[in-house]
Design goal:
Structural class: alpha+beta
Distance between the termini: 67 Å
Number of strands: 18
CATH superfamily of the largest domain: Glutamine synthetase/guanido kinase, catalytic domain
CATH class of the largest domain: Alpha Beta
Number of helices: 13
């Protein structure tokens, strides 16, 4: 049963004997927040919203303007499969409003909806298909692995694969379509790929996906982590994001006669991402740890270029298959699974649309392995690098007119302030590396 309206929700709640409703929303940093109401409060919640104190939510409000209202979106209604069958629980994703009835400007979901509304005015729909990688560990306090598998390994059904299958089953019961699930490159690293959809639905699904993966692991006494680089010396976890623009049912990136079968719109869009990537990397890779993954040699992209077959490039354009025009897309490979999907999708879209608006010229593809090139070779081809750490990324974002306009003044200012605080806290730490290297000799 799929809900579309308030009446649909109320009908399902009664038929399925739902007892509680969890109201979910997302803070500026991408953490899932929420509270629970009884089913008796649901009609009021959908009509007027439910008030809550926003002053303790990261980036939401100062204490003198703390009153917030959460309004559940009927289309997001699902029954949570891991909850007790005796007292069944559903969830609904909320939009956040101010008491005066206006949308709250620092609500990440509002930011994405605002950008998508502007896109709709010119006739486009933004579709995305992210590939989220993650690790299973023994518990949250260590990185003891559960398996020694590798990329696409088919091993006897071990604990990690059983947990991953449980996650897939739970996602499907929530109406989220899973295309693939498989073992990734590193030991105990896994990936579940979701069927592409419009960006708002997908952002909601990503938030649900991360919780489902963690819940199903916890049920078995294990810990799932979306930390970008939890283990030194092995591949980190990415969120490669496939993207396309549609006009109605037609893929706006496809041109049968175009070079690489890309339309001018597709080429300009890719060029926009290449040009503005350094400015928005602090959003797609927002943690200090994110930059431990973005180093040469571990399949994570570092250099700003594009290609078709070359997976060391920042952007990959999969080869065209006859009859698969709707599958024409670009894959942006730098984001990690610990980002805020509402903000990440927003800034990627903004960069691509800037390329279309200004008709940016797409450079030639980089068909050779960029990691094997010398710095002089890369410079001769005009290939630049992503920011090396969070500090550099923040400085570039802070100067970016594009990101500021995309996120809105209120959210932008808080995001920058929070990331600067994180960097200041990090750089004051004394790490295990320093103790191991310097304590014996200095």
């Amino acid at each position: 049963m799929k809900a579309r309206t308030k009446q649909d929700v109320l009908r399902i709640v009664k038929a399925k004997k739902i007892r509680y409703i969890r109201l979910w929303f997302t803070d500026v940093l991408g953490f899932l927040k929420g509270f629970t109401i009884t089913v008796d409060e649901l009609p009021r919640a959908m009509d007027d919203g439910m008030g809550f104190d926003g002053s303790s939510i990261e980036g939401f409000a100062r204490i003198e303007e703390s009153d917030m209202v959460a309004r559940p979106d009927p289309k997001s209604f699902v029954i949570l499969p891991w909850e007790s069958q005796k007292q069944r629980v559903a969830r609904m994703v909320c939009d956040i409003y101010k008491p005066d009835g206006n949308p709250f400007e620092a609500d990440p979901r509002y930011v994405l909806k605002k950008n998508l509304a502007a896109l709709k005015k010119i006739g486009f729909i933004f579709n995305v298909g992210p590939e989220l990688e993650y690790f299973y560990f023994n518990n949250p306090k260590n990185t003891i692995i559960l398996d020694k598998g590798g990329y696409f390994d088919l091993t006897p059904l071990d604990m990690a694969e059983k947990i991953r299958n449980n996650a897939v089953t739970a996602l499907e019961s929530l109406g989220i379509i899973v295309e693939y699930s498989h073992h990734e490159v590193a030991s105990s690293q896994h990936e579940i790929d979701l069927r592409y959809s419009d960006a708002l639905t997908m952002a909601d699904n990503v938030m649900t996906y991360r919780l489902v993966v963690k819940e199903t692991a916890q049920e078995k006494g294990m810990h799932a982590s979306f930390m970008p680089k939890p283990v030194y010396g092995v591949n980190g976890s990415g969120m490669h994001t496939h993207q396309s623009l549609f006009k109605g049912t037609k893929n706006a990136f496809f041109d049968k006669k175009g070079k690489y079968h890309l339309s001018d719109i597709g080429k300009h869009y890719i060029a926009g991402l290449l040009k503005h990537a350094p400015e928005f990397t602090s959003v797609t890779n927002q943690w200090v740890n994110s930059y431990k993954r973005l180093i040469p040699g571990y399949e994570a992209p570092v250099y700003i270029c594009w290609a078709q077959m070359n997976r060391s490039a920042l952007i990959r354009v999969p080869m065209y298959k006859p009859g698969k025009e709707k599958s024409t897309r670009m894959e942006f490979r730098s984001p990690d699974p610990a980002c805020n999907p509402y903000l990440a999708f927003s800034v990627m879209l903004a960069a691509g649309m800037e390329g279309i608006k200004n008709k940016y010229k797409l450079p030639e593809p980089a068909n050779d392995n960029i990691y094997d090139m010398s710095q002089k070779q890369r410079e001769s081809l005009g290939i630049k690098s992503l920011p090396e750490d969070l500090s550099e990324a923040i400085k570039l974002t802070e100067k970016s007119k594009l990101v500021r306009e995309c996120l809105g003044e209120k959210l932008f200012e808080h995001f920058i302030r929070n990331k600067k605080m994180e960097w200041d806290e990090y750089k004051a730490q004394v790490t295990h590396y320093e103790i191991d290297k310097y304590l014996p000799i200095l």
